[in-house]
Amino acid sequence: MDAAVLRKQFESLLGGHLGWQAKPVVEAVPSGVPEIDRATGGLPRGCLTEIFGAPSSGRASLLVSILACATARQEFCALVDAEDSFDPLSAAAAGVNLPRLLWIRCGHNAGHALRAADLLLQGGGFGVVALDLGDTPAPAARRISLTSWFRLRRAVEHTPTVLIAVERQSNAKTCASLMLELSRQRARWSGGALASARLLGGMRVAVARHKPGLALTAAFDTGALE
């Protein structure tokens, strides 16, 4: 008996074609950066989104935008800060509603950060859980096992939470549903003609979507968070 006949019989036992092979539609929420949302369709709930790039690539600006957008939706968010690099004053100025943000400082311990993120996901109740490993030294970040990333992916599945991992390099690999690589294109300066008298006013950031599907690119302008 061929596969088509077996499939038809199986569907008949279920009361007709119920789309049992179709994947459920994943809800996506905006990142707060329209250029990224147009390229990605938004940030998927119940999934791991990996944001990575070199220092001063726009990672902090995008993370703050995500948190500002989520807290504006009246969602509670959690930020697991592995290297104590979060600046709440700058974040508040960029629109983050700090009373809706749980900030967990991990004292330069990536292992503690992984465990904290896992506990937050198991506990539930957060619209966004962000794991910031952006300033974690690359060797320490690479030592995080794929098993640990898989555990986080399983913990966020079937929940309404957006799980964000911010890193220098991609480490989650196949465990991430959405992968965004950021790089700086050019800086914007304000002030006088002398370099010593100028202030960084922001920068142009290029974004490459590596997953899912075919690679796509976008670009956006940031403030002076990085």
Q: What is the residue-averaged pLDDT?
A: 87
Query: Element order, helices and strands?
Result: HEHEEHEHEHEHHEEEE
Outline: globular
Let me know the number of strands. Answer: 10
Q: Which runs of at least 5 residues are low in confidence (pLDDT < 50)? A: 16-21
**CATH level-3 fold name:** Rossmann fold
The end-to-end distance, rounded to whole angstroms, is: 62 Å
Going by CATH, what is the homologous superfamily? Answer: P-loop containing nucleotide triphosphate hydrolases
Q: What's the Cα radius of gyration?
A: 20 Å
Q: Structural class, judged by helices and strands?
A: alpha/beta
How can the largest sheet be summarized?
A: 8 strands, mixed
Content of β-strand: 25-35%
Helix content: 25-40%
User: Counting H and I runs of at least 4 residues, what is the number of helices?
Assistant: 7
Number of structural domains: 1
Order of strands, widest sheet: 5-4-6-7-3-8-9-10
CATH class: Alpha Beta
- CATH architect. name: 3-Layer(aba) Sandwich
Please outline the helices and strands:
Blueprint (H helix, E strand, L loop, with lengths): L2 H11 L14 E2 L4 H7 L2 E2 L2 E7 L5 H14 L4 E5 L6 H6 L7 E5 L4 H14 L4 E5 L5 H5 L3 H11 L5 E6 L10 E14 L6 E14 L4 E7 L4
Helix pairs in contact: 5-7
List keywords for this structure.
alpha/beta, about 30% strand, two-stranded antiparallel ribbon, 10 strands, Rossmann fold, 8-stranded mixed β-sheet, single chain, about 230 residues
General description of the model:
There is one protein chain. By secondary structure, the chain is of the alpha/beta class. It has one domain: P-loop containing nucleotide triphosphate hydrolases (Rossmann fold, 3-Layer(aba) Sandwich). The chain is 30% helix and 30% strand. The protein has an eight-stranded mixed sheet, sandwiched between helices. Helix 5 runs parallel beside helix 7. The longest helix has 14 residues. The N and C termini lie far apart (62 Å). About 3% of the residues have low confidence.
